[in-house]
């Protein structure tokens, strides 16, 4: 059918009003599994220190009747530390924009402050779960906390087919970043079982396995995962392709996806031995007015406390696609 001559159509119109929804849709993830699970500790210095100790290995202990006492040589504690890291976001909105009639929010300045606050929560999670080294900082260099991956130096298994990941761990006051394998490889269930056993033998009880989304999909194919089939009320079997629980010889372990982790590493964690140290909690501060805008900074200062890295472990150099 032809349009009658002279018909006025929308693409010719000038005064049609916009149809803008009064909702703003933001699906950026806000879950922070590690930060939400870890204990909180108040710290009072830019570098927080703590101590670890260990008992002598269990051994045969049989004494001769009437023998003189033999002194057991004392071994000093190990003194560890991590540096705090300042996290900050700054908002600046012109007064003209604040006077405008905006869709989806009543006040542009408050909306931007809310966004930046949520971003800081994500930045903290990103800092604690990855392979960041500790940095003492200086006049022109920011201090940085060492992340979980960097602390875990003992109980580890590599899926790599090249040189396995090298993790120096704590040494001389700082924690270096791991050096990844030259070639990543296939993760298998035996690697996960091995790390759990190492942590358990050392005295830990690692009930949390934290992985990236891609690595969680890979781990769901392992033998030993629980709840492959669920029973519904009408007795129809529902096939579940994923898994939230891994069962090893040492108990049940919750598998938690973490969007901020690297695909290459799976963390096997005893959360009793991890803590977020808080020197300054997140707070917003109005900045001095220097012109036709309003400014506010949201900031906080935190560190990661690895109370004893022997209680946890990791599988490294994973290629979840293999």
Describe the structure.
There is one protein chain. This protein is α+β, with helices and mostly antiparallel strands. It has a single domain, classed as phage-related protein like fold (Alpha-Beta Complex), CATH 3.90.1690. The chain has six helices and 16 strands. The protein has helices spanning 33-37, 95-99, 108-129, 148-151, 189-202, 213-219; strands at residues 39-42, 47-52, 78-83, 85-94, 156-158, 170-171, 174-175, 208-211, 229-231, 237-239, 245-248, 251-257, 266-269, 274-286, 293-306, 313-316. A six-stranded mixed beta sheet has the order 5-16-13-8-12-11. It has a four-stranded mixed beta sheet with strand order 1-14-15-4. Strand 11 and strand 12 form a beta hairpin. The longest helix is centred in the middle third of the chain and has 22 residues, at 108-129. Mean pLDDT is 92; it is low at 228-232.
The average pLDDT is: 92
CATH class: Alpha Beta
Number of domains: 1
Backbone structural class: alpha+beta
* Low-confidence residue ranges: 228-232
Record keyword descriptors for this entry:
about 325 residues, alpha+beta, phage-related protein like fold, four-stranded mixed β-sheet
Furnish the topology, listing elements before pairings.
Elements: H1 33-37, E1 39-42, E2 47-52, E3 78-83, E4 85-94, H2 95-99, H3 108-129, H4 148-151, E5 156-158, E6 170-171, E7 174-175, H5 189-202, E8 208-211, H6 213-219, E9 229-231, E10 237-239, E11 245-248, E12 251-257, E13 266-269, E14 274-286, E15 293-306, E16 313-316
Parallel strand pairs: 1-14, 5-16, 8-12
Antiparallel strand pairs: 2-3, 4-15, 6-7, 8-13, 9-10, 11-12, 13-16, 14-15
């Amino acid at each position: 059918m032809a349009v009658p001559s002279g018909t006025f159509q929308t693409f010719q119109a000038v005064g049609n009003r916009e149809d803008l929804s009064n909702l703003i849709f933001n699906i950026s993830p806000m879950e922070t599994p590690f930060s939400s699970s870890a204990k909180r500790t108040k710290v009072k210095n830019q570098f927080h220190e703590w101590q670890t100790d260990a008992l002598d290995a269990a051994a045969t202990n049989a004494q001769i009747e009437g023998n003189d006492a033999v002194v057991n040589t004392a071994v000093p504690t190990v003194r560890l530390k991590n540096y705090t890291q300042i996290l900050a976001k700054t908002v600046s909105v012109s007064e003209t924009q604040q006077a405008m009639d905006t869709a989806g929010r009543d006040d542009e300045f408050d909306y931007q402050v809310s966004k930046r606050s949520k971003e800081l929560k994500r930045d903290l999670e990103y800092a604690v779960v990855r392979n960041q080294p500790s940095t003492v900082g200086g006049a022109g260099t920011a201090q940085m906390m060492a992340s979980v991956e960097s602390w875990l130096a003992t109980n580890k298994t590599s899926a790599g087919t090249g040189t396995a990941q090298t993790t120096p761990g704590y040494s001389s006051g700082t924690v270096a970043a791991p050096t990844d394998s030259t070639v990543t490889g296939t993760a298998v269930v035996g690697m996960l079982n091995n790390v759990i056993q190492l942590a358990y033998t050392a005295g830990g009880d690692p009930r949390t396995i934290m992985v990236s989304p891609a690595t969680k999909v890979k781990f769901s194919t392992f033998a030993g995962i629980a709840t492959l089939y669920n029973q519904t009320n009408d007795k129809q079997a529902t096939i579940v392709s994923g898994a939230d629980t891994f069962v090893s010889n040492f108990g049940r372990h919750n598998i938690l996806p973490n969007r901020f982790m690297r695909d290459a590493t799976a963390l096997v964690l005893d959360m009793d031995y991890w803590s977020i140290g808080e020197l300054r909690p997140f707070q917003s501060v109005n900045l001095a007015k220097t012109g036709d805008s309003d400014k506010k900074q949201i900031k906080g200062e935190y560190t990661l406390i690895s109370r004893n890295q022997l209680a946890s472990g990791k599988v490294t150099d994973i290629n979840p696609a293999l």
